[in-house]
Predict the 3D structure of the following.
Amino acid sequence: MKAQAAGVLPAPHTPYRPPHTPHPASRIPMDKKSKKRIDLLNKRLQKLRQQLSGAKQQLDEPEEVARIEAEMAAVHEEIAGLKAS
């Protein structure tokens, strides 16, 4: 056992949880339909991020950036709604 410096207390004990394990409160069961919809929306977000990156580099249509950002916001809201239900 290692010697401790005078006046230094050990860290309080916390149960071991591997880093890849989600927090227990986030393990709320979700139906297959919602889970599949969230997966689909996440793929849509990834595609929109790429489109936004390209639109920002090109800038020949400034309204395109605003349209993509609005669509991304709508997708984020839908994901939040599905996770909340």
